[in-house]
Design a protein that fits this description.
Arc Repressor Mutant, subunit A, three-stranded antiparallel beta sheet
Length: 89
């Protein structure tokens, strides 16, 4: 693998993914496709989105919604809403 990601870049991606899902209201019913999650993330950081997303899934903040005909979809874990709101600030 190439370069490592800095903590601030990691957190930037993490917060952006969570905010996108939150402001789209992707909790119990909604979901967001991977392409939409990565849009707006600088191209030099896009390679790290998978790593961040996997960590968010391990933390149970994000749930893998499933495969759609358009690609993989994700949603926030409504049970962790309090934590998610703290992250967003």
């Amino acid at each position: 693998m190439g370069r490592k990601i800095s903590e601030s870049e990691y957190n930037k991606i993490r917060n952006q993914v969570i905010k996108k899902l939150y402001y789209q209201k992707d909790f119990s019913k909604g979901h967001l496709l991977y392409e939409r999650l990565t849009s707006g993330i600088p191209s030099h950081l896009k390679g790290f989105v998978d790593e961040v997303l996997n960590d968010l899934i391990k933390e149970e903040l994000v749930i893998f919604y499933g495969k759609t005909k358009y690609g993989n979809a994700y949603q926030l874990n409504i049970k962790k809403l309090k934590e998610i709101i703290e992250i967003i600030g």
